[in-house]
Amino acid sequence: MEEKGIQMEKQHKRNDVAKKFFERGNKGKVEYVLNSNISTYDSSQNIKQCKIVLIADKQVESYRYMYQTRILEELDVRFSSLSTIIKNHEVFDAFHINQNIIGRICCDSEGKLNDESVLLEIPEKRNRLKLSLNKIESYALFSGQIVGVKGTMKNEENCLEINNIFEVPLLPMYKSPFGELVELNVKPLNIVVAAGPFTFDVGFGYEPFNELLIKMEQEKPDLLILLGPFVSEDHPLLIEKNTPKTPGELFKEHVTDKLSKFIKASPGVSIVMVPSTKDLFHCSFVFPQPPFPKSGLPKDVICTSNPAQFRVNEITFVIDNVDILFHLASNEIERNAAPALDRMGRLSRHILIQRHLYPLFPTSPEVNLEYKKSSFLELQNLPDILILPSKLKYFAKIVENVICINPGYLSKGESGGTYAKITIHPLQQTLMEGAFIENLVSKRARVEIVRV
User: Whose CA is closest to 441, among 385, 395, 388?
Assistant: First the structure.
């Protein structure tokens, strides 16, 4: 009787959450707009050409991950590359009284980084120096960050009192061939990005996901980007083993079958799926992560690895589907840093400056990073759009001419979460000069954060 009472109570709670969701008053509310002067798309327009090309050498295939190569060697390869770039960009003179040194930021203990615990690890010498930040007016540092510093040695304390920090210079942005831009330069491109979880913690009704598909069937964007987890390891009922269905059965019933129906009702809408390391249905839980297996999914769905790097027409998208923003926020220390940017913009900038989609070291306990595959986390160019799903508050910001977006989670709270709606207008013919043209997406795209 007691067991039956518990089950009835849980069912009542599921019904109550579903009722509150369907009666929500903020349905479709636009929570934030980036570039509000740019018009949104008209869903009555015909479907446009949407050419999706996965960037070569950045698509992770299945690999063995139950063993780990020497992490230090992999870190040293990356350090060597970035230190050379810094040296070529700045002037260093190691024999001057003002020491110029390149190293990796680390903590003097296993605790959280703080102003008094900052060390600079110098891989070539297998040495660490304590850093004094007292003379630095502005900085933002995290463990694993590669920087150049300038300062004076305090020999009696084996401490470097620094007065300047040199960052890695930014990568260039991708430039499109003239002919490609002219061919695709017809109508606005309409893209929707939604990140899981897609169902509430109390059950597997997938109400927010169902609502999203209904809305997309009405609006018919050119591209729908879906980011896992689709069946999350964090779901309480799966943790408790309190469901008669397997993760595979849940995925088929609530994701595969519904996407098949959506595709039939919305021909011409392209779909990209990016997995999450929290996806129980996926065969790999390490990062970087290979794509979902195509078996069972509709053949029209494009499955990419995690992270994902691809182009939609001329526009470069990079998607980092682990919560790197939250992990950086939990480790970063700063003082008067980047006054033109708020915290979310500054955290996004760390990724762009370090040219890497998980620059934090040591990693968060939530992430199993396979260092021998870390080349798949490196950026080739600055992307036009960087998507960073996070439990932190949704946002859309322009950082170093890159549109950085956290769409939020589709299922969050009893009234549902948010997704991102992107409208990218064609580049004006008057700006097309030369054989290769900068895309200027940040000047011609509108982003809305919308309640499901």
Answer: 385
What's the maximum distance between 2 C-alpha atoms anywhere in the chain?
Answer: 81
Buried b (16+ CB within 10 A) or exposed e, 50-70: bebebbeebbbeeeebeeeee
Tell me: the pLDDT tens digits for 240-293?
988 889 999 999 999 999 999 999 999 989 999 999 999 998 888 899 999 998
Instruction: Please report the beta strands in 167-259, taking only residues with DSSP state E, as ranges in sequence order.
Output: 175-177, 189-195, 223-227
Alpha-carbon distance 211 to 452, whole Å? 7
Domain ranges of the chain: 2-64+172-323+367-451, 70-169+324-365
Structure token pair of residue 106: 């680390």
What is the per-residue pLDDT across 51-71, written as a single tens digit (0 to 9) for each? Answer: 899 998 899 988 877 666 678
Q: Is 396 exposed, middle or buried (0-12, 13-18, 19+ CB in 10 A)?
A: buried
User: Please, what CATH class does the domain formed by 70-169+324-365 belong to?
Assistant: mainly beta
DSSP assignment of 328-343? HHHH-EEES--TTS-H
The first and second tokens of residue 416, run together, are 């549902």
Question: Do 302 and 225 meet the contact criterion of CB atoms below 8 Å apart?
Answer: no
Task: For the chain, give the number of residues.
Answer: 452
